[in-house]
Amino acid sequence: MQMSNSQETYSIPSKFRRIENLHIVFWLLKDLSWAMLWKPMGLIMIIPTIGAALLITWQTRAIKSELLHNLAVDFWIIANAYWMLTEFYSKNDSLRFYTIIPFSIGLIIIAYYYIFIKPKEKKVTELAN
């Protein structure tokens, strides 16, 4: 992190940013396929979408806030992909309710960050100043 005008700024290497931008394209293609009922394309796009999300999580693992937010996104995409699959391939509509598991894991990760980690980080920052 760099200091500028007494505010912290966050910058990431351009190669990481390229992966993040590509991830957005993958996710949009997956969701477009879902909306248009393009089952083969939607199924195929799960792999690069989750793969890019996991790569982003790995690349940002050294920064706790980024790691935990990206883990939550990983679980969001898993829930999203599962939901799409249930709509594409199941006649049992109630199967989509299992998305509560990965969605909840993502929410727990975010809650953990904001309840436990961020206050500690704030205290450390205040003590340093």
Describe what you observe in this structure.
The chain crosses the membrane at residues 36-55, 67-85, 97-116. Keywords: Membrane, Transmembrane, Transmembrane helix. The protein is mainly alpha-helical and 129 residues long. The protein has one domain. Helices cover 76% and strands 5% of the residues. It has four helices and two strands. It has helices at 14-35, 39-59, 64-89, 100-128; strands at 2-4, 7-9. It has a two-stranded antiparallel ribbon. β1 (2-4) and β2 form a beta hairpin. It is flat.
What's the quick description here?
The chain crosses the membrane at residues 36-55, 67-85, 97-116. The chain has 129 residues and is mainly alpha-helical.
What is this structure's SSE topology?
Layout: E1 2-4, E2 7-9, H1 14-35, H2 39-59, H3 64-89, H4 100-128
Antiparallel strand pairs: 1-2
Helix pairs in contact: 1-2, 1-3, 2-3, 3-4
Transmembrane segments: 36-55, 67-85, 97-116
Keywords: Membrane, Transmembrane, Transmembrane helix
